[in-house]
Amino acid sequence: MSLGIWGKLGGAGLGAIVGGPIGALVGSVAGHFLVDREGAPFGATPRDVVFTTGLVALAAKMAKSDGVVTPSEVEAFGQVIEVEPQAWAGVERLFDLAKRTTDGFEGYAQQLASTFHDEPALLVDVLDGLFHIAKADGAIHENEDRYLREVARIFGLDDAAFERLAARHVQRADDPYLVIGLERGASDAELKARYRSLVVEGHPDRAIARGLPPEAVAIATRRLAAINAAWDRIAKERALA
User: Which of 25, 55, 61, 222 has its CA at a distance of 20 to 30 angstroms from the CA of residue 73?
Assistant: First the structure.
């Protein structure tokens, strides 16, 4: 039976293929996961491995910055990172190693930014996943907010883009308009066009069609729900059909 990405992490030499700080982390846990029985060749750097391992590493570093990992955050981690039961021990080791390693979170973030420079939407997916974990205990704490802002900066998001992303997870002034990404003074037509564009661009079916890992699909699903909720509020306020 295939274990997907966690099966790939059992493969010898995968860390060298991935390279960078994420590759070093992958190399440290090689052998602690069952090997993918399908034996599919890696070929070029496996982007699913970089995406999911990088997300785990950044989540671990965020937990370290906050100083405590609550049960609700552990549950949220399980909602973002899809893990088969037989792979949990290896994932926990990966998380603990990432949290304890002397490598800073900046290196992981920079490698993700470099790997997905041609698909910036995936970098937003990573931040959405981190926000989902951070807010699980009921609040985004000061250290977490500072951490998320710095990761966003490394990913190339400006302050306005960060605020729009944060609005999907944390209450902000004029929250639904921030989620949609337009000012309250925008016309009905502009809002409808923007909403439809967001739905098309961020629909989870697109992630599935592009062969992205389950983590990216789950994040896209939650993001679409937040966008739909924001639109429902705006439509009700404006009595839009």
Answer: 25
**Under a CB-based contact definition with an 8 Å cutoff, are residues 152 and 162 in contact?**
yes
Residues 41 and 55 in one domain: no
Claim to verify: residue 18 and residue 114 sit in the same structural domain: no
For residue 73, is pLDDT > 70? yes
Contact 15, 28 (CB under 8 A): yes
pLDDT of residue 219: 81
Structural domain including 20 reads 1-45
Query: What are the pLDDT digits (tens) for 15-32?
Result: 566 678 888 887 776 654
pLDDT of residue 108: 92
pLDDT digits (tens, 9 = 90+) for 161-200: 898 888 888 765 557 888 888 888 889 889 999 899 988 8
Identity of the amino acid at 59: A
Domain count, the chain: 2
DSSP the chain: ---HHHHHTTSTTHHHHH-HHHHHHHHHHTTSSPPPTT-----S--HHHHHHHHHHHHHHHHHHHHS---HHHHHHHHHHS---GGGHHHHHHHHHHHHHSSS-HHHHHHHHHHHTTT-HHHHHHHHHHHHHHHGGGSS--HHHHHHHHHHHHHHT--HHHHHHHHTTTS--TTHHHHHHTS-TT--HHHHHHHHHHHHHHH-HHHHHHTT--HHHHHHHHHHHHHHHHHHHHHHHHHT--
Q: Which residues does 240 contact at the CB level (< 8 Å), separation at least 6?
A: 188, 191, 192, 234
- Shared domain for 34 and 52, answered yes or no, is no
